[in-house]
Amino acid sequence: MNEQYFIYGLVGIILLFIIIKLLKWPMKIILNGIIGLISLYIVNIIGANLNIIGLNFNFSLPINPITSLIAGFLGVPGIIAIAIIVFFM
């Protein structure tokens, strides 16, 4: 009887590790998306109030799931890439 509990506990721990491994990627994607969303929002706040040498630029970047994930995964280079794409489109 005690051996069965040990085997059940061992199988439960193995299944717990497998579930944690499977949930690691989706949680990382969600976390990077949230970080990208926050960084794009901050860039938009700064860009809306951008006033250089008396010229008002009103610079803003689109905030959607794709741009949030790009900014979240690539960081500052991703935000710069999005800004270049928006500037030329």
Fold and architecture overview:
- This protein has 89 residues and is mainly α.
- It has one domain (26-88).
- It has 3 helices and 2 strands.
- It has helices at 2-48, 65-74, 76-88; strands at residues 51-52, 55-56.
- The protein has a two-stranded antiparallel ribbon with strand order 1-2.
- Helix 2 (65-74) crosses helix 3 (76-88).
- The radius of gyration is 22 Å and the shape is rod-shaped.
- The mean pLDDT is 86.
- Which percent range describes the beta-strand content? under 5%
What is the topology, as strand order, of the major beta sheet?
A: 1-2
Return the average pLDDT rounded to an integer. 86
Q: What coarse outline follows from CA principal-axis ratios?
A: rod-shaped
Number of strands: 2
Q: Give the ordered list of helices and strands.
A: HEEHH
Helix content: over 70%
Round the Cα radius of gyration to an integer and report it: 22 Å
Quaternary structure type: single chain
User: How far apart, in Å, are the first and last alpha carbons?
Assistant: 70 Å
Structure summarized in a few sentences:
With 89 residues, the chain is mainly α.
What is the topology?
Blueprint (H helix, E strand, L loop, with lengths): L1 H47 L2 E2 L2 E2 L8 H10 L1 H13 L1
Helix pairs in contact: 1-2, 2-3
Any descriptors?
89 residues, mainly alpha, two-stranded antiparallel sheet, 3 helices, 4% strand, rod-shaped
